[in-house]
Amino acid sequence: MRNYLNKMKGGAKSPPAVHVKEIWWSILGSSLGIGACAWLSSNYFEPRDTSLLIGSFGASAVLIYAAIKSPLAQPRNLLGGHFISGLVGVACYHLFGGTLWFAAAAAVSLAIGAMLATKTLHPPGGATALIAVIGGGKVHKLGYFYAFCPAGLGAVVLLLIALVVNNLAESRSYPEYWV
User: Fold this and answer.
1) Is the dihedral of CA 171, 157, 26, 115 positive or negative?
2) Looking at CB atoms within 10 Å, which of 65, 105, 119, 146 has the fewest?
3) Has residue 6 been placed in a domain?
4) pTM over 0.90
């Protein structure tokens, strides 16, 4: 038991401070990326009973604008993670939606498994799957289209902004790899 509890002490040093320039590039990228999705959503998608903005994109913004070297922030993971998780979430809602707690647990867990199996692990994908289950009538009405829009297309918009903004700074290069 003591060894088990000792594992929780940690031991590594805290990460170094982030330079103010990196902070500003991260703020700029996330403002433009989320802003673009929100603007497009309110002006073009919501009038057509869909959306281009889901909560999990906030977490994606942290990865693709602030943790750009992370394997979890690379295009394959961003795009594949949201799309696959969207499909899994919708399937779980259709199969188990009568028991919401089970559908929610299955959606997140199976999305994690699917992302791991396809080498597209993107933690916000877990939220994308969960939103497909708990997102309410508007989300449920989208059915499997949810995986394409907002999940897939919104991720594409975030990626396009990340490619532009992250490569404007001399100190940044994005992506590390595509596939």
Assistant:
1) negative
2) 119
3) no
4) yes
Alpha-carbon span 35 to 154, nearest angstrom: 11
Residue 55 falls inside a structural domain: yes
pLDDT digits (tens, 9 = 90+) for 31-66: 999 999 999 999 999 999 899 999 999 999 999 999
In a domain, 116, yes or no: yes
Residue 125: which residues within 8 A CB-CB, separation 6 or more?
Answer: 56, 81, 82, 84, 85, 111, 112, 115
Q: Which helix (H) or strand (E) holds 155?
A: helix 153-166
Within a domain: residue 1?
A: no
**CA 33 → CA 103, 158, 166, distances in Å?**
30, 5, 11
The token pair at 160 is: 């396009």
Q: Which domain holds residue 149?
A: 20-166
- CA separation for the pair 60, 34 (Å, rounded): 10
Rounded CA-CA distance 128/155 in Å is 11
Give how many domains the chain has, as a whole number.
1
